[in-house]
Design goal:
single chain; 491 residues; five-stranded mixed β-sheet; two-stranded antiparallel sheet; binds protoporphyrin IX containing FE; Cyt_P450_E_grp-I
């Protein structure tokens, strides 16, 4: 009897899974995206994904645009069609209608706990953010100088003339330290010559480690088939342990910060304002805002929601910036004239600890950072899933598969949309024939067409746009400048 029950249950689960798979496949096959032109399918399982992974993302996309037009559909995993467009009106529509176009569910599962409602607390408060980042600049310059000194020490140990360093790895340690200190007043101490890492760094590394090759397929299936998440792999167990460590340390930090805010409130006899607080990391500011009496009780974040911000900021704000600085150093190493020009500008500054305003007043440094982020966008693309049927307006009509001219794109609930950040940033129609070259000088006279780019910053899509744009971009810009200032001046 028990045996029969097990067989029936398994049978029912398999039937349910097959039904779900069939209805998913049918909805994808019937998607109106089938009317769009696009490259032929390369593989039933992987669609055109391999070609995107083999080359720099924007290169095959550029080829597609030339061959099939600026609004096309390519094939993703299991041959499902994805909308790819560089039409700026269409992209603006997608990014501003953030309730229709959300992060795909598998991405959300992978980042679960990463994007919490607390992120919204800081949205729209741009002026305040600016003031906060001014306060954080000291941390950026301090850590940048510490990195410079680590490299100087390596050179001196190597005989005093030169040394070989893995720039991306060192910069990753520096930006981890910066986000720890500036984000939540925590010292990762990753920038240390012994290479030892502390408990939280270790937990973080485990949480985001790539599974071994043999288990990658199963991890991928787990992302897409929720039922499989009931089976726990070694990676799942490790991730759970790491999450528990992060939770313990995060909760401890939250308790300490709350106690410090309470103590300051008691000392002053009134609610403390951000400007007169001793600790000004982002987590303290978030907790303070949350404790403020003008926020209604039902709109306050729980400690868990506040805690969700810790990995959010580490993930979103750490490798992106180290990647940007590494690309800047790489590009400058290829262009000695530009490197010299930048160094000359930086050497005119007498101190090695600049304020945010002084860093922002260096014009060539600004142009180098803008050009790096345009030409080597650390996040080259992102995706959205349509949670409702929709009609997307376009700026420039396109021709569909049957030769008809279309003035809008039709999408069905469940369709995936690709936001081609790098491809748009390098588009010749916007930036001119030299769009694929690294040229900071272009920022002295930018073409009129760039005004149509719907990005939150710098006429580029690097930090995307709309309500879910990067909230750390000002932080990252000053941090990137501080790191380049210290390194290009010294080496
Ligand atoms: C060069 C550096 C950076 C780049 C290129 C970058 C780029 C991006 C992009 C493209 C997104 C949107 C991702 C998506 O929705 O799919 C994003 C979101 C986000 N970024 Fe950044 N980022 C950078 C640095 C930072 C820093 C330093 C922080 C924190 C201090 C940060 C915090 C965030 C957060 C919290 C979100 C999620 C916003 C939301 O969902 O509402 N980022 N970033």
């Amino acid at each position: 009897m028990d045996f029969l029950l097990i067989v029936y249950t398994i049978g029912a689960l398999v039937a349910l899974a097959l039904y779900k798979l069939a209805s998913f496949m049918w909805s994808r096959i019937a998607s109106p995206l089938r009317h769009l032109p696009g490259p032929p399918n390369d593989s039933l399982l992987r669609g055109n994904v391999e070609v995107l992974q083999k080359e720099e993302e924007s290169v095959p996309q550029d080829r597609w645009a030339q061959q099939y037009g600026h609004t096309i559909a390519y094939r993703g995993l299991f041959s499902t069609r994805r909308l790819w467009t560089v039409d700026t009106r269409a992209l603006n529509h997608i990014m501003t209608h953030h309730t229709i176009y959300q992060r795909p569910l598998p991405t959300r599962y992978r980042l679960s706990g990463v994007v919490g409602p607390g992120v919204l607390v800081t949205e729209g408060k741009q002026h305040k953010q600016q003031r906060r980042i001014r306060n954080l600049t000291e941390i950026f310059t301090g850590k940048s100088n510490q990195l410079r000194d680590c490299w100087l020490e390596k050179i001196s140990k190597n005989g005093g003339a030169s040394a070989q360093v893995d720039a991306l790895s060192w910069l990753g340690q520096a930006t981890l330290d910066i986000i720890g200190r500036a984000g939540f007043g925590y010292e990762f101490d990753a920038l240390n010559p012994t290479g030892e890492i502390n408990e939280l760094s270790e937990a973080f590394l485990k949480l985001f480690a790539t599974p071994p090759r043999s288990r990658r397929l199963f991890s991928f299936l787990q992302l897409n088939i929720p039922l499989l998440r009931l089976i726990k792999t070694e990676e799942n167990h490790k991730a759970e342990q790491a999450q528990a460590t992060m939770r313990r340390i995060g909760m401890q930090l939250i308790r300490e910060k709350k106690a410090a805010i309470m103590a300051e409130t008691l000392e002053k006899g009134r609610e403390v304002e951000c400007k007169d607080m001793k600790e000004r990391d982002l987590l303290t500011l978030l907790i303070r805002t949350n404790m403020s009496t003008d926020i209604p009780e039902d709109q306050r974040l729980t400690d868990d929601e506040v805690l969700a911000q810790v990995p959010t900021f580490i993930v979103a704000g750490h490798e992106t910036t180290s990647m940007a600085v590494t690309w800047a150093l790489f590009s400058l190493s290829q262009q000695p004239d530009m490197q010299r020009k930048l160094r000359e500008e930086l050497l005119q500054v007498a101190t090695d600890s600049l304020t945010m305003d002084k860093l922002n007043a260096l014009p060539y440094l600004d142009a180098v950072v803008r050009e790096t982020l345009r030409h080597h966008s650390p996040v080259p693309a992102t995706t959205r899933e349509a949670f409702e049927d929709d009609i997307i307006p376009v700026d420039t009509p396109y021709t569909d598969r049957y030769g008809r001219t279309r003035e809008y794109i039709e999408v069905k609930k469940g369709d995936l949309v690709f936001l081609p950040i790098l491809a748009l940033n390098r588009r010749k129609e916007i930036w001119g024939e030299d769009a694929h070259e690294f040229k900071p000088e272009r920022w002295e006279h930018i073409p009129k067409a760039v005004a149509s780019v719907p990005g939150v910053w710098g006429n580029q899509l690097t930090f995307i746009g709309g309500p879910r744009a990067c909230i750390g971009y000002r932080f990252s810009l000053v941090e990137t400048k501080a790191l380049l200032f210290a390194l290009v001046r010294a080496f």
